[in-house]
Amino acid sequence: MTERPVRYAEVGDLAARIPVSVVWELTLACDLACNHCGSRAGRRRRDELSTAECLDLIRQLAELGTRDIGLIGGEAYLRKDWIELIAAITEAGIECGLQSGGRNLSEDRVAKAAAAGLKGVGISIDGLRDVHDALRGVPGSFDLGLAAIRRARAHGLVATVNSQVNQGSLPQLREMMDVIVEAGATNWQLVLTVAMGNAADRPEMLLQPYQMLELMPLLAELAREARSRGLFLQLGNNIGYFGPYEAALRDLSDDELHWAGCSAGDSVLGIEADGTIKSCPGLPRPYAGGNVRDRSLREIWEESEPLAFTRRRTVDDLWGFCRTCYYAEVCMGGCTWTAHSLFGRPGNNPMCHYRALEMDRKGLRERLVKVRDAEGLPFDHGEFEIVVEPARTREPDRIVIHG
Fold it and tell me: Is the confidence at residue 86, as pLDDT, over 90?
């Protein structure tokens, strides 16, 4: 057997790291009612940062070397000062983008954002019209999203699409690509719907681990076709891992043969609307490193242990299948957001293509069963069990693995 692969993120200490890419939740106010929303957005947080506090935070991010900021919500455009903040980010020499559902991303809002320096807009399209509108909770949101893509392009912005992959959208991915190409988007990023927030209340929408065997070959096929049509398909960090399509789907270079592990807290930073700093925008509060109202961003970034979890973790922190996996030292259990939302702790991620292939080779498959409900709070989660069962069997003998 060859040597196990090296984990690329092992080099250097925390102070030497730079929060290159920042995802900033400007507000939890939202004009959609998404059934999958991890933050359960809708109303503003009680104590969101003021304009002055946001401007100071932009200054601190620039001092740390941040290169790009993606504004999210809720809906970022529901903050009255969002154009002022885009202008400040641009003036600080940081590239600014926006992720949106697009429902009320009007001609006037797009024009003002573009004039302030916004570089790109990513619109969420999560199925064809029927599935998308049902998931987003607002009839007509599909058509409004497509209109927002066209508006962004008309104002010279890079227009991209983000899509949730779940039981509703999986059968529609090929037709979705046709719609996205027609709308003129240049990039299409896909992520698995995660069992957090509203999605934790609807486990029937989640993909099962064994469906990676269906999803990954389909994505590889779509990626090849997409490139021929001027669209670049991108995998989110919770899709894939070490299967036969990984290098092609992640567009890795010749010296990067596989996914190199989570970069949360290493080169990626998340900011909540009240100033809470996290290593990943999707993670719950136990992963928060502090609040910029209490400490400087530099102190939080350089000294906070919760932000360093991806580089402090060792193979001994893994459990279940991931503990004994050949790729354990590189992968470290894959996406913490996905694993924590299922089991309340990281280190064992069943949503993995390599793992599904290994199980199938043994004539087995894994299935997730919900055993505890979420509390109904932002970024909360319930609890699931992994059921190991014979592959392609409706009424199997079951082996239950608790999280």
Answer: yes
